[in-house]
Amino acid sequence: MVDNKQLWEQALSQIELSTSKANFGTWFKNTYIHKNEEGIIYLSAPNTFVKDWLRNKYHKFILKALRDISPEVRNLEYIIIRKDDKTTPAEDSSQKNLTTTTDLGLNDLYINKDSNLNPKYTFDNFVVGPFNEIAYAAAQAVTKNPGMNYNPLYIYGVTGLGKTHLLQAVGNYIKKQNPNKRVFYTTSETFTVDCVNSILNNKINLFKEKYRKYDLIIIDDIQFFSNKEKTQEELFHLFNHFYENNKQIIFSSDQPPKYIEHLEDRLRSRFEGGMIVDVSKPDYESRLAILKTKSRVLEKQIPDEILEYIASIVCDSIRELEGTLKSVIVQTQAKKRDITLTEIKNILKNNIKPKKAVSFKDVVKIISEYYTIEEKSLYEKTRRKEVVKPRQIIMYIMREDFNSSYPYIGQKLGGRDHTTVIHAYEKIKRDIQKDTVLNQEIEQIRSQLYNS
Ligand code: ADP
Ligand code: MG
Predict the structure, then answer these.
(1) Distance in Å, CA 302 to ligand 1 centroid
(2) Mean pLDDT score of the chain
(3) pLDDT digit string, tens, across residues 326-364
(4) Is 118 contained in some domain?
(5) Going by C-beta distance under 8 Å and a sequence separation of 6 or more, which residues neighbour residue 269?
(6) Whose alpha carbon is nearest atom 26 of ligand 1?
(7) With bands split at pLDDT 50, 70 and 90, how would you rate the model's confidence at 451?
(8) Which residue's alpha carbon is at the smallest distance from atom 11 of ligand 1?
(9) What single DSSP character describes residue 77?
(10) pTM
C-alpha cells in the first residue's frame, strides 16, 4: 500500500496532466490527504471555496485518479483543517444545492471492499430484450451452477451495452445467495497493476495465493491484457486452477477472443473453450424500457413523450441513454418545473451524431486543419498547449463517436499510454459541459467530419 503522501503525489501528477496550469495551481495547491479510513479518503482543502470547487468540479476526476493508483479507494470526502487543527466535516449549505447532481451519481461510489462489487448492479434492475437475452440467460445459468457449465463465461460487445452490469449482477447474486462464497471483481487493468507490482516486489506467490482463494473471479475488459505477457501468464495459471477446481471465472471484452490482438494462443483457446456470448445494441422498445426503469430507480417522473423521444434519438449505448436521462433530470430540477418536449429537443439536438465512414486519419487531418497545426506534431511527444488540446479532442472523438478502445487510440497517436487517453477523454467530456466555446468547436469539427 502506498502511504497517503505518495498516493496524493501520484494522483496529483495524473491530475496535472489533464488540467491547465492555472486551474491546477488554483485548486490543488495546498491540498493533501488528511487520512484514509478504510478506503475513504479525507482530502484537506485550504478553505471552503476551494473545497466546494473541488467537490463540484473535480470530484469524480480526483476519485478516479486515486482509484487508478489504489483500487482500494472507495470514496472521497473533503475537509478543512483549521489552524487549531480541528477537523470540520465537509458539510454546509452549499451541499444542499448539490444533491441534485451528486444524488444521481452517488451510488456509483459505494463499492464493497472485499469483493469490489458495486451493489447497484443487480439482475432486478437489468432490462432484458432481444439485444442481450442470450448474455442474460448465460449469466443466469452461471448463477445456478457456478463453475460447472459455462467456464469461463465470456461476454463481449462495444462499450456502454451493459457488460459490467451483467458481470457484477452475477457476483452480487451469488454473494447474496451464499454470503460465504468468496467473490472478486476486478478489471484487467487493476489485475495487471497488481501482478506487475507483485513481480517487482518479489511477492508473486502472495499474488497467486490471493487470487486462488476466491470461488468466483470476474475480470472486466480483458482487451487491456493485450501485450501484457507476464500478466497473461499468471492469468493462464489462475484460469487453470479455477477450471480444475470447478470454480467459475467470468470475463468481458470489447471483442471476441479471436480478435484480441497480442493475446497468447493458449489463453485464447481457454477463452474459446467456454461460453462466448455477445451483447448488441438495444432496439427501440428495449431502450424505452431501460429509460422507464432508470427513471423509476431514480424516483423521477418524466413524461412518456420525453422518454419516447430520448429512446428514438439515442440508439448506440445504454450509458449514453442513461446520461441523457440524467441530464434531462438535472435540467428539470434546475428549472424547478417540468421541461417541455420542445425544450428537450433543443437541448439534445447537439447530441445526435451522424455517422459516416470516417477514418482515424480523417479525424487527425480535420482537427489539425481546424486548429492550424502540423499534423505530425499530434503524433509527437510535445506537450505544447497548442498541440495538447487538439490531441485530446482527437482522443475524445475517437472514443465518443467511434467507440475505439483506449489502447488503440493511444497506439495510433504515436504510442501513448491508454491511461493518458482515458484522462484526455474524460477531461474533454467534462470541459464541454461548462465551456461553451469548446463545445462549439467540437460541434464544428464534427460537422466537417460527417457532413463534408
Ligand atoms: P459496459 O460495461 O458494456 O460498457 P455498463 O455495464 O457499464 O456497460 O453499462 C452502462 C450503463 O448502462 C450502466 O449504468 C448500466 O447500469 C446501464 N445498463 C446497461 N445495460 C442495462 C440493462 N440491460 N438494463 C438496465 N441498465 C443497463
Ligand atoms: Mg464495462
Answers:
(1) 20
(2) 86
(3) 888 877 877 778 888 888 887 776 655 545 567 899 999
(4) no
(5) none
(6) 126
(7) low
(8) 319
(9) E
(10) 0.61
CA of 167 to the centre of ligand 2 (A): 9
160 lines ligand 1 (CB under 6 A): yes
Percent of the chain with pLDDT over 90: 53
Confidence of residue 95 (pLDDT cuts 50, 70, 90): very low
Above 90 in pLDDT, residue 147?
yes
- In DSSP terms, 37 is beta-bridged to 40
Which of 261, 256, 268 is closest to 155 using CA atoms?
256
Using CA atoms, how far apart are residues 242 and 260, in angstroms rounded to an integer? 22
Reading the block at residue 337, the C-alpha cell is 418545473
pLDDT over 70 percentage in the chain: 91
Q: Which atom of ligand 1 is nearest to the CA of 221?
A: 2
The residue segments making up the domain with residue 265 are 133-278
Residue 300 region by backbone torsions, left for phi larger than 0, else alpha for psi between -120 and 50, else beta = beta
Q: Of 229, 250, 278, which one is at a domain's C-terminal end?
A: 278
Total domains present in the chain: 4
Among 121, 164, 166, 294, residue to substitute to test ligand 1 (most atoms within 8 Å of Cβ):
164
Q: What is the C-alpha to C-alpha distance for residues 148 and 238, in angstroms, rounded to an integer?
A: 17
Within a domain: 338: yes
Q: For ligand 1, is residue 167 a contact (CB within 6 Å)? A: no
Q: What is the pLDDT of residues 290-309, one digit of tens each?
A: 999 999 888 888 899 999 99
Whether 326 contacts 169, CB under 8 Å: no
Angle at 34 between CA 28 and CA 36, to 5 degrees: 115
Whether residue 12 is found in the same domain as residue 88: yes
Q: Output helix, strand, coil percentages for the chain, rounded to the nearest 5.
A: 60, 10, 30
- The confidence score (pLDDT) of residue 97 equals 31
Does any ligand 1 atom lie closer than 6 A to the CB of residue 104? no
